[in-house]
């Protein structure tokens, strides 16, 4: 399944199967506003805006936000949250790795789990540099997967690896920033950087809830096998979970983090 179809299909369940809640998003927005010294004149761009989880609080506070996403269905989810598209929000259905804006267009560019999806990441960073206003901020962010959920995913991948056509070695969502040297590249372009943790919070789910997320194919690695093999895999995984966790009602909890690598030209 190609990227656009994948995100179109998971759009209705995207928010509920992730771990960034509205309360956490509000706290992160507070952190970002203070970090960049935002006023209502500050303009934000998020390539890969999706359902707007990261920037919805900014939109509701009246900041000018532009978002690009490959999935029209994801953008529709954002529109539904706002009962339309307010004047301070501009949404573009397009390849988010290509920024169709004039030079010096935005005060802040925000990417979340985004850079690793771009084939030409250095060209993408060049484009971000181009559209940023002098003295603007580039915030390269990720939500760190809670360890208990990462462990759960690991068990799933082990079962997936038993079936032909699976790819259990594929990267976790919180691996890309370490694998791509954004910092080194931007330092060469005259940026200074700062690593920050915007928010830490506890994520709790029952085993049954997590199983239902996987059953709904809410994550990219769930599409690596055929429907027939997927059904067999899920049956095996549920049996494993009952043995390993003792009950599908067991609650597993651990800490998540919202990390920001903040870059600013000097």
From TrEMBL:
Keywords, comma-separated and alphabetical: Methyltransferase, Transferase
Q: Name one GO biological process term.
A: methylation
A GO molecular function assigned to this protein is:
methyltransferase activity
Q: What is this protein called?
A: SAM-dependent methyltransferase
Q: Which InterPro entries match?
A: Methyltransf_11 (IPR013216), SAM-dependent_MTases_sf (IPR029063)
Cited PANTHER family: 2-METHOXY-6-POLYPRENYL-1,4-BENZOQUINOL METHYLASE, MITOCHONDRIAL, METHYLTRANSFERASE
Residues of the Methyltransferase type domain: 45-138
A Pfam family this chain is assigned to = Methyltransf_11
Q: What is the lineage of its organism?
A: Bacteria, Bacillati, Cyanobacteriota, Cyanophyceae, Nostocales
